[in-house]
Specification:
The protein contains 2 helices and 6 strands; from the N terminus they run E-E-E-E-H-H-E-E. It has 120 residues and is an alpha+beta fold. The strands form 2 sheets. It has a 4-stranded antiparallel beta sheet with strand order 2-3-5-6, covered by helices on one side. A two-stranded antiparallel sheet has the order 1-4.
């Protein structure tokens, strides 16, 4: 799982002088529960303010699909995706909301956030 971020392609932010929000919704994310082996389904909502780079959507789709057979908890996969995207893009701000479908009568929403440190 460590080289998943290599799947991610980027392109230059066309307006790096401006703060603007990019939002991508992926309603078909899947991974596997490491305890039961049952599939987990989620809608992922990625929101970010780009710095110099933006994520290319086809590569982002393939990146998300690479988790399909991974046994990983909701909290871990949400934070792994955010960490990989932050490492590749170095955004000004990024938030990933993972809305996992109901299973066993409980639904879960995991929200992970990154804010760029201000330079002195």
């Amino acid at each position: 799982m460590d080289n998943k971020k290599e799947i991610l392609d980027v392109f230059d932010n066309p307006n790096p002088e401006r703060n603007y929000i990019i939002e991508h919704t992926a309603p078909e994310f899947t991974s596997v529960c490491p305890k039961t082996g049952l599939p987990d389904f989620a809608t992922l909502i990625l929101e970010y303010i780009p710095n110099k780079l933006c994520v290319e959507l086809k590569s982002y789709k393939y990146y998300l699909n690479s988790f399909r057979n991974d046994g990983i908890y909701f909290e871990a996969v949400t934070n792994k995706i955010l960490d990989d995207l932050v490492q590749v893009l170095n955004p000004r701000y990024m938030k990933l909301t993972a809305k996992f479908n109901t299973r066993g009568g409980i639904s879960s929403i995991i929200i992970a956030e990154h804010k760029q440190e201000k330079s002195l």
